[in-house]
Specification:
The chain is α/β, with parallel strands linked by helices and about 160 residues long. The protein has a single domain (about 15-155), classed as Lipoprotein like domain (Double Stranded RNA Binding Domain). It is built from 2 helices and 8 strands; from the N terminus they run βββαββββαβ. α1 (about 35-50) crosses α2.
């Protein structure tokens, strides 16, 4: 008779005492108008999709994400020369936020003043798959992942 044992490990994400998080509108410290509205909504959507934390109002939350947008740049990244003309071929969109997570139950910060920076590249040509909209998606995804990485630990 033979007996075999199997070992397996499952990993789950946990944020410790924080199960419900409030995400108030980010403060906009850039000259880009209304970007805080779009980025705040993208962060909320990403946290909801991740499904580790529940996004709720501040009154119902265990933790509050406090953040400000400190950088929003959309600059030429690569260039092409045609004769004497030099034109931008590819652009880089860069967004940085400074964020803190406040634990309401312990009345202290879990993490504080963390800079999370994300970039996405795109071409102006419509034939490319690297569009401005795709660059925005990449930036938003990376910002959310930065927030979740700071908040949620793998156990």
């Amino acid at each position: 008779m033979s007996v075999s044992c199997g070992f397996y490990r499952t990993t789950s994400r946990s944020a410790g005492d924080i199960k419900r998080i409030a995400v108030p509108y980010l403060k906009n410290d850039t000259s880009e108008p209304d970007v805080e509205i779009v980025i705040t909504q993208a962060i909320i959507d990403g946290i909801v999709r991740d499904n580790t934390l529940k996004v709720v109002s501040e009154d119902d939350s265990d933790g509050i994400l406090e953040a400000s947008i400190t950088e929003y740049r959309n600059l030429p990244y690569t260039f092409a020369q045609t004769g004497a003309d030099v034109q931008a071929e590819q652009y880089r969109l860069t967004v940085s936020i400074r964020a803190s997570l406040f634990d309401k139950g312990k009345n202290t910060y879990i993490w504080e003043n963390r800079v999370i920076k994300a970039s996405g590249d795109y071409y102006l040509e419509t034939t490319s798959e690297q569009t401005y909209e795709k660059a925005l998606e990449d930036v938003y995804r990376d910002l959310v992942e930065g927030i979740l990485s700071a908040t949620v630990q793998d156990w």
